[in-house]
Amino acid sequence: MAKKVGDDGIALDFQLGDEAVEIINVKRSFLFDLLPCPLLVFSPTTQGSYPVLLFFHGFMLQPNSYKSLLLHISSHQYIIVAPQFSPMASQSREVKNARKIVEWLSTNNLDSVLPEKVFPDLQKVAVSGHSSGGKTAFALALGYGGSSTSNATQLEPGLKISALLGIDPVAGSSTSCLCSPNILQFIPYSFDQSIPVAVIGGGLSNQRAFGMCPPGAPNGVNHAEFFNESKPPCYYFLAKDYGHLDMLDDGTASLSRWMMKSGKGSTDTMRRTVGGLFVAFLKAYLEGQADDLINIVESPNIRAPITLDPVISIEE
């Protein structure tokens, strides 16, 4: 039987996986006229079919800022599609563009850019994002960006979203200043979603840097509210000692990071933690292998490399 934890007791999901990963830049062209923006694709290289994760970056960031995190997830045998949205686009436009990318995926365009004999399993698709990109992921899963919000998770023929993850999702600068589309209702369990949800928050993300810079994830519109409005099954992990941008690669988004409250712990360990939580959640809900997720939820102080407090699991 394969090991599930290392010698230190930490779940192996928090370590880099064994799969070699190729990073592919996909540009808009006449061959891909449905694409609204460039993509950064992370793909396993071993022959086979793999689940697909859509990942949306945060405000004024880019997929390259998350390269270490996305490599970690992909090394556990997931294909990741990370769009590069225009910094000038409104969030409503981002959600519409996210839906166009789903349309592009649904017509098997991804096959042509992947390594030889590597294929996407479009029956196992999850959406995710960080900060405003986390909200974009929620909006897409809830059916925004199209003509109707009914049957939200069935976006295109043959393409169904099966899981939803948000890293420190943010809906605006305050409860009175929300970005469109406004998906928060401030009512528990109000999201019209039937798929499992995982929300990862930063314990310092609601605090001001230097006592004056606006927080990255203000109270009332941050990770806590997204979790409160999610229907079961839903999971909440708070990285108690880390901030809003502490999962980015070192040396990226320098100005934004200077303006945000950061933790004093290792950012590499934070990236490993977020990556491991993604892997455990995706294994549970895309592949039916729930043991790792259950063990992390039941014993986070043993299985995770950083302090996760609280950890909340609400089952159906």
TrEMBL record:
Signal peptide: none annotated. Gene3D superfamilies: alpha/beta hydrolase. InterPro entries: AB_hydrolase_fold (IPR029058), Chlorophyllase-like (IPR017395). GO terms for molecular function: chlorophyllase activity. GO terms for biological process: chlorophyll catabolic process. SUPFAM superfamilies: alpha/beta-Hydrolases. This is Chlorophyllase-2. The gene is LOC107767570.
